[in-house]
Write a structure and sequence with these properties.
243 residues, alpha/beta, Rossmann fold, 3-stranded antiparallel beta sheet, 7 helices, 10 strands, binds 2-phosphoglycolic acid
């Protein structure tokens, strides 16, 4: 795992956006795996600016999102579909037919999960996957204890995740308790992975991740199996890493 530490959130976002820009310039038909949450917002803001400045185009890019709350319609303001449209897709030249996200309203999660895996395969896999990390070490909604061989599936959210994510809802009871998520094996098949972590509340889990050997109680430690992973942190998130 390559570790890159930036002074602050703005610089982290700049670096992440630059890495994505380079990947698109190298391959305009890039298959990009994206994440939701607070962490990538600055990156998306910079990508929008780069698009507006004419530096990049998403016209031929395909996007696969990591996960979606189970039970939320795509137009629900807290759905990840809505998040992506509002914070990135409506402001760039992506073709909406090239945007994929797990179906939070499916009545057959197993079938829908298989279909999502098949779609990713049809595009020969994800070239570059962006990840955040939960304070409990989750990637996507793969919570501690999830098998490293898991594929896209319906997952139960850990109570700490429900608590963390309640900041976006009226109260904790409004947070869905399940989500459709790419599995850990799905994520590990991406050719390149960029994990972003920002802020003091990620410092403990980031220090653990860097020290840990593979441990299913720390889902992000699965990334140690992969040979092209960059962990991009700001100083606060890196503050407990032992040098
Ligand atoms: P955050 O979420 O970016 O909002 O901290 C990260 C995650 O839960 O994966």
């Amino acid at each position: 795992m390559k570790i890159v530490i930036k002074d602050n959130y703005q610089e982290l976002s700049e670096k992440a956006a630059l890495l994505i820009k380079e990947a698109i310039l190298n391959n305009p038909k890039l298959v990009l795996g994206l994440a939701t949450g607070s962490t990538p917002l600055g990156t998306y803001k910079r990508l929008i600016e780069m698009y507006q400045e004419g530096e990049i185009s998403f016209a031929e890019v395909t996007i696969f999102n990591l996960d979606e709350y189970f039970g939320l319609a795509p137009d629900h303001p807290q759905s990840y579909n809505y998040f992506m449209k509002h914070n990135l897709l409506s402001k760039i030249d992506i073709n909406y037919d090239n945007f994929y996200i797990p179906d939070g309203l499916t009545d057959d999660p197993d079938k829908s999960s298989l279909e999502y895996e098949e779609k990713i395969k049809k595009f020969n896999g994800i070239d570059l996957q962006i990840l955040g990390i939960g304070s409990d070490g989750h990637i996507g909604f793969n919570e501690p204890g999830t098998s490293f061989s898991s594929r896209t599936h319906l997952a139960n959210l850990a109570s700490s995740t429900i608590k963390d994510n309640s900041r976006f809802f009226e109260n904790e009871r409004e947070v869905p308790s399940q989500a459709m998520t790419m599995g850990i094996a799905t994520i590990l098949e991406a050719k390149e992975i960029l994990l972003l972590a920002s802020g003091i509340n990620k410092s403990e889990i980031c220090a653990k991740l860097i020290d840990a050997s593979k441990d299913i109680m720390l889902p992000a430690s699965a990334l140690k199996e992969h040979d092209n992973v960059t962990i991009l942190l700001d100083k606060e998130a890196a503050s407990q890493i032992k040098t």
